[in-house]
Amino acid sequence: MGQPARRTARRRRLGAALKEAREAASVTPDQAAQAIHGDKPKISRIETGRHRITRLEIDTLLNLYEVKDDKLREWLIALSAEGRKRMWWRQHSDVLQPEFKELLTLEADAKRIAAFQPQIIPGLLQTKAYAAAVIRASDVRLADDEVEFFANFRIERQAVFQKEDPPQYLCILTEGVLRQQVGGKRVMAEQLRHLVRVSRPPTTTIQVIPFEQGGYTGTNGAFVLYSYPDPLDLDVVQVEYLGGSLYLEEDRPVRKYQDAMDGLRTAALSSRQSMELISSIARDFEHE
User: Fold this and answer.
1) CA atoms of 5 and 50, how far apart (whole Å)
2) Do β-strands 112-117 and 223-227 pair in parallel, antiparallel, or remain unpaired?
3) Do residues 77 and 58 touch, judged by C-beta distance below 8 A?
4) Which of 89, 145, 187, 221 is spaced 20 to 30 A from 53 at the CA atom?
5) What does the radius of gyration of the chain's CA atoms come to, in whole angstroms?
6) Residue 214's pLDDT is what?
């Protein structure tokens, strides 16, 4: 028997919505299971986001639940489509952790990505040399070929910006991130020059909170906000912790992080001022 399907933010949201529609229609799990030629445990797995649902199954359930709202149907069908897509990274699925697969899934279709990082430059903005230094420092047990693989994979992720409809990307960094000598002065100078090259507001906006700012909101650690267009209407927050990530989808905690991001942008230098600071620090590394 195959492993249970990995739960993603979309699948959890879809399952919760289907359960709500089923209960509103006074349909039992047994009746729903019979309609899609399944069993009660399958309905439970669908409603908890642990089982992919086919287009035929979702159409059948929406008809059974008498969901007439076209916008709602469109939204639910869009959510279900994620599970049937073949992601570019599937060939490497066996070596990727479940939390990282969730991140890649969120990244793939996001309309907007907003990241706060007080420790390292985010993977979507890293050079290969900087990525290799970060990966090597994070796990000293990795062999050189493993470091090479994960560094190359990190660069592959950046192809998300080459899509026909790339996401709008906002990154808030602290000045300490720019001055931390990850990989040494030469690697840092190259990395900072790369940040200046890729900064193209409003498509890619990089802002820095300078040392002079003092205290600011969002000091509890790194996080990333992923936002999706209609009909998905889905916002997810990724919060990092030692050994993994937590994904938040409920409106109240998501709104708190949205407010925190607004506060961080207020504390940060403008994009132009940030580029001037980054260029200045890069020159310092180059001339030391």
Assistant:
1) 5
2) antiparallel
3) yes
4) 89
5) 22
6) 82
Rounded Cα–Cα distance for residues 268 and 264 (Å): 6
Q: In the chain, where does DSSP find H-type helix? A: 9-24, 29-35, 40-47, 55-64, 70-81, 98-109, 128-138, 144-157, 175-179, 185-198, 251-267, 271-287
pLDDT of residue 231: 55
Cβ atoms within 10 A of the Cβ of 141, count? 5
Q: Is 195 in a helix, a strand, or coil?
A: helix
- Residue 7 CA to residue 99 CA, distance in Å, equals 10
Ranges in the chain, pLDDT < 70: 1-8, 82-88, 230-233
d(CA 134, CA 114): 21
**Which whole-number Å values give the CA distances from 73 to 17, 55, 80, 188, in the listed order?**
11, 12, 11, 49
- 154 and 107 Cβ atoms separated by less than 8 Å: no
Question: Which of 151, 211, 205 has its CA nearest to residue 179?
Answer: 211
> Is residue 202 reached through a cis peptide bond, with omega within 30 degrees of 0 on the bond before it?
yes
Q: Is 160 helix (H, G, I), strand (E, B) or coil?
A: helix
| Strands ordered across the beta sheet of 204-209 | 204-209, 168-174, 112-117, 223-227, 235-241, 244-248
Q: How far is CA 142 from CA 132, 251, 287, in A?
A: 11, 39, 32
- Give CA–CA dist 125/167, Å, rounded: 14
Token pair, residue 34, equals 């019979």
Question: Rounded distance, CA 147 to CA 130, Å?
Answer: 11
Q: Which tokens belong to 283?
A: 């020159």
Which residue, chain included where needed, has tokens 């907003």?
A: 114
Beta-carbon contacts of 74 under 8 Å, excluding residues fewer than 6 positions away, are: 231
pLDDT of residue 159: 92
Residue whose C-alpha is closest to residue 117's, from 199, 172, 180: 172
